[in-house]
């Protein structure tokens, strides 16, 4: 079993690498099962059209739909809930993030990245405020 994530990153001018990978399972006495994961839904149609000419035909495709707003909210709450202490982001902010990301892509990685970036921005602001505060009993 060979599992390749981000298969669309192997695209090249002649697609030699991808064609070779997809032909391996069909070699005589091959026991290889190839599972390719890609973000591009049209990868096989757009970049690997010659696969349809093979006796095996085109690869079987399994489409995973994008996450919904509710699913993204649950993922964000679960991930951020793993951090000890006070909640990192307000529940309304998580729902806002989930709503926006689900409307554009439904990509959980993008939603987590947005939250990470929001935390970084707040950290920078807090550090800036801390640096400007006068020290106790001292002068600025």
From TrEMBL:
<feature type="domain" description="Cdc6/ORC1-like ATPase lid">
    <location>
        <begin position="67"/>
        <end position="125"/>
    </location>
</feature>
<dbReference type="GO" id="GO:0006270">
    <property type="term" value="P:DNA replication initiation"/>
</dbReference>
<dbReference type="InterPro" id="IPR027417">
    <property type="entry name" value="P-loop_NTPase"/>
</dbReference>
<protein>
    <submittedName>
        <fullName>CDC6 protein</fullName>
    </submittedName>
</protein>
<keyword id="KW-0235">DNA replication</keyword>
<dbReference type="InterPro" id="IPR054425">
    <property type="entry name" value="Cdc6_ORC1-like_ATPase_lid"/>
</dbReference>
<dbReference type="Pfam" id="PF22606">
    <property type="entry name" value="Cdc6-ORC-like_ATPase_lid"/>
</dbReference>
<dbReference type="GO" id="GO:0003688">
    <property type="term" value="F:DNA replication origin binding"/>
</dbReference>
<dbReference type="InterPro" id="IPR050311">
    <property type="entry name" value="ORC1/CDC6"/>
</dbReference>
<dbReference type="GO" id="GO:0005634">
    <property type="term" value="C:nucleus"/>
</dbReference>
<dbReference type="GO" id="GO:0033314">
    <property type="term" value="P:mitotic DNA replication checkpoint signaling"/>
</dbReference>
């Amino acid at each position: 079993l060979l599992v390749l994530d981000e298969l669309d990153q192997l695209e090249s001018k002649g697609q030699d690498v991808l064609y070779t990978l997809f032909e391996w399972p069909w070699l005589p006495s091959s026991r290889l099962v190839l599972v390719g994961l890609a973000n591009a839904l049209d990868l096989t149609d757009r970049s690997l059209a010659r696969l349809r000419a093979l006796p095996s035909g085109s690869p079987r495709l399994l489409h995973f739909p994008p996450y919904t707003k509710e699913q993204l909210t649950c993922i964000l709450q679960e991930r951020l809930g793993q951090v000890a202490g006070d909640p990192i982001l307000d529940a309304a902010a998580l729902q806002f993030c989930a709503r926006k990301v689900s409307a554009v892509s439904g990509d959980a990685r993008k939603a987590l990245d947005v939250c990470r970036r929001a935390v970084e921005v707040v950290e920078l602001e807090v550090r800036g405020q801390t640096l400007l505060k006068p020290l106790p009993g001292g002068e600025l």
